[in-house]
Amino acid sequence: IISTMTTAQAPLDEPSCWLCLEEGHDTFGKPLVRNCSCRGSSGFAHISCIINFAESESKRAYMSGDMGDSLATFEVCPNCKQDYQNDVAYELSKAQVDFVEREFTGDQHGFLYTNALTCRLVLLNVKNESDRCEGEGVISKMLSTFEAMKHTEQHRSHLLHPDATKAFEGHANANIGTFYHKIGSDDGLRKAKFYFQKARSIFESEGDELGVMTINNLIENVEAEISGDGRRCLTQAIEVGLELRKYQLFTKEFGVDDNTTIEAGVQLALAMWKEFRTIEAERLLVKLIATSRRVHGMGHDCTQFAISALQRVKERRVFLKKDDEINVDEVYRVMRYTSDGERCVVQGPVSKVVYDPRSNRSEPSHDGAERTFEVERANVVTSRGTPVVCTGLQKATHLNGKIGDRREFDEDTGRYTIHFEDETLKPVMVKPENIRIVFDL
Q: What is the pTM of this model?
């Protein structure tokens, strides 16, 4: 029998657990969950079913000698091959620790145990008192396990090469330092510095140049916070170089589709943006969003992180002039041109962002309500890094229509230096009346 019901009329399939094939809640009253990169009706499962499956697969992998993937099913969805995230990752990290403590006792399983503990530590929320207490216990277990591993030869011959074990210990110490850094108390900052320094010593001994660079930045930030100066910022050129190396490394190790690579790319784009390389940053973010949407879906944290960064980078911020004086204390968003480009619609003033070293977060300070209004284009002063297009040039006519980032302002000549996207063109100095803001690249 051939159904006459059209696709548009057909009811959508109710999601069911891909493991037990049941719809609705499990026997514990827990609903179906999905927090990976699966889409449509696929990938839904009961957390209890995922845990049972992960335990079974971990035992099978361990018995077959596949130590590298013995705990992978606690961290990666076997359907979309992407990491679990948010609440699902949180629940599975707890189950992973419980499983290893129950099934793999003894110093010979030190790597499995510290791996599970590390995965748990990075997912704990330091703002939650219960998680902070659990974190202290997790760290104590990690440290005692590393000490025990140093007194056994088992991990050298069966689990990992000793160099790999040492490198893992370095990253574990870095994660411990990050946990205390997030807490942000005076004692937490001192502990963060101690464990970051331990990680740096290991990275130095292993010749991990990128690890050393990353840890040095973290140590300097912690030292600045301890002294009360707030977070220390790297010079932007150094930060871009560091983020570029990380992005290249992750691309080589994990591929362009991996969420770790995409997130590293977003950090690189933000570093470029802070160095006033806005056009490069925006182009990269558009590419990363397209990749993340294709691989992980629109709702995935990785995609949303990239979209949020793009929204930030696409903001065109300006200052306003009044009586030929620039008010540098208030920043506005410019939305569009009107009146054939002679006037601009602006919005603001934009809330200032203040860094709080105790909470380790940047928060907006709301000084008043924003308003939207029009001003003469001549009274709008672009900020550094604003994408612009050259127009109306009489001598260098070949530059008309070329886009670039607005960089330095020369007070003597009253001109901006424009660094063009076309790298075959040298930077030139242009009068403000010969540039227009580019809102969409």
A: 0.78
